[in-house]
Amino acid sequence: MSSKITIIGAGSVGATIAYTLSNEDIASNIVLIDINKQKVEGEVMDIAQGTCFRDPISIVAGEYEDAKGSDIVIITSGIARKPGQTRIELTQTNVNIMKSIAPQIVKAAPDALYIIVSNPVDIMTYVFTKISGLPENQIIGSGTILDTARLRCGLSEHFKVSQKNIHAYVFGEHGDTSFIPWTGAYISGVSINEYYELAKSLGKDVKELDKEAMLAYVQKSGGQIIANKGATFYAVSKAVCKLCGIVLASSDSVATVSSMMHGEYGIEDVCLSTLTLVGPNGIQGKVPMRMNQKEIEQLKKSADALKEVIAQINLD
């Protein structure tokens, strides 16, 4: 596939995204940009020296102007979350970084689709949407794609079934107010509860699902990984590369990405994750998913929590 992807930020996440992309047939040109010139050059050299084992690919350390002609720009810049620190505590520092990056990269690549990965990702997506001047369809927050992947991993381990057979999602903020709309969660075409009964009838040794424990697993995984090894970057990189593949494909796909809400579920002027149609033209619109009233209220609670943070940040 002949496409150009620029990554802003060569920290653990940005560099791992570049490495993961270099191992897949998603991009033929990768540009990695970081304020730390020495580090970005080292990352590119390390990655490039492994590309002899694949079809030719160009990967370079560049400046903002080198992003010209990019199909996708991925923004990962920001201060990393420290052990015990919430994503929201990072907010103003990373907002300021985003404000310095946006005009420079948008000038170089005004037609690219932008994938925002920097945390807190819903706030960063909102900020970029407000200050970039780009059409909203070009701006995609990575949102709860990673949370959804964690959910499917947990359900797969619990029910001993392939993740490919699981259609369950995490909605809301990528953070503490996220939730699982179980009303729309299915395994092989049947609801979670029905699948449990089916598995038992087939003689499988499965336990009834503790849904609260599963949500805790999803929400606490990132913090646990950070406590154990200092950062999370493998799974989020795979999730972002999957998203790159989606937007470079010939048709649309449904994903839990973060984008601006315009009255869906009664929510306005905030970015969070619900089922969204995404494809080569970016965000195509929200896909209404069946949810009960409690789940809709949980989504509104998540939106309100994000709005409280937005009200406290300086966008000027």
Automatic annotation (TrEMBL):
Residues 144-313 form the Lactate/malate dehydrogenase C-terminal domain. Residues 289-316 form a coiled coil. Beta-D-fructose 1,6-bisphosphate binds at residues 152, 167. NAD(+) binds at residues 13, 34, 39, 64, 100, 117-119, 142. Substrate binds at residues 87, 119-122, 147-150, 232. Gene3D superfamilies: Lactate dehydrogenase/glycoside hydrolase, family 4, C-terminal, NAD(P)-binding Rossmann-like Domain. The keyword NAD applies. Keywords: Allosteric enzyme, Coiled coil, Cytoplasm, NAD, Oxidoreductase. Residues 4-141 form the Lactate/malate dehydrogenase N-terminal domain. It holds the Pfam family Ldh_1_N. GO terms for molecular function: L-lactate dehydrogenase (NAD+) activity. InterPro entries: L-lactate/malate_DH (IPR001557), L-lactate_DH (IPR011304), Lactate/malate_DH_C (IPR022383), Lactate/malate_DH_N (IPR001236), Lactate_DH/Glyco_Ohase_4_C (IPR015955), NAD(P)-bd_dom_sf (IPR036291). It catalyses: (S)-lactate + NAD(+) = pyruvate + NADH + H(+). Allosterically activated by fructose 1,6-bisphosphate (FBP). Pathway: Fermentation; pyruvate fermentation to lactate; (S)-lactate from pyruvate: step 1/1. It is found in: Cytoplasm. Its EC number is 1.1.1.27. The active site is at 174 (proton acceptor). Homotetramer. Catalyzes the conversion of lactate to pyruvate. NCBIfam families: L-LDH-NAD, PRK00066.1, PRK06223.1. Belongs to the LDH/MDH superfamily. LDH family. This is L-lactate dehydrogenase. It comes from Blautia stercoris. The gene is ldh.
